[in-house]
Predict the structure.
Amino acid sequence: MSRFQNKVAVVAGAEHPLGAALCTRLAGFGATVVAIGVDDLALRALASRHPSKIEPLAMHSGWRDILRLLKDAWEEQPVNIYIDVLPLMEGTARGQRPDTFARSTGLTAALKDGMVAGRTLGVITIPEPKDSKEDSTNRTGYEALLQRFSTENKPVRMLGVGLPQHNRDWTREQLVSATDTILMLCHPVSRGVKSGMVIDWALELR
């Protein structure tokens, strides 16, 4: 039996190719998945693959109000798995969102009590700097978010995975490789990996 069966998983950035692949695989393993993103149509199409297992939640206009409602409604219901792919959507043509970092920060704050209750095993994708100073700054910000959340919210175990931010055309092999890595880190077998670590997987995906 899958260790993901009957677990509650939250995947942010679910309309990204990697986010969609993670939602589909987790649902296939028997997890209940909350697929969070900004594109209603893409989220509904994703949920239609496993309608009893994937619940879409769009955060577009008024997303800060949505986060407040989510915090109040979720309270301490356990979150067992948390995966944030939103950082990879920054700077892409379809996902250009200057407030992506604020959304990531807001989501972790809104679900914090549920993560503590569920002893979450989680992953935040860390955008790999290309060349620009802006890319490097983005990575530093997400690494700081990872470290702060890991330190302040034990027994949550949160890790970072460095991935290419500007890869728009993910191959099947790349998606399988990246999802395998992320799901392994969200599996109890990886509990020995220290919270706050960043694993750089980007070189495998070039």
Observations:
- The first strand starts at residue 8 and ends at 12.
- The longest helix spans residues 133-152.
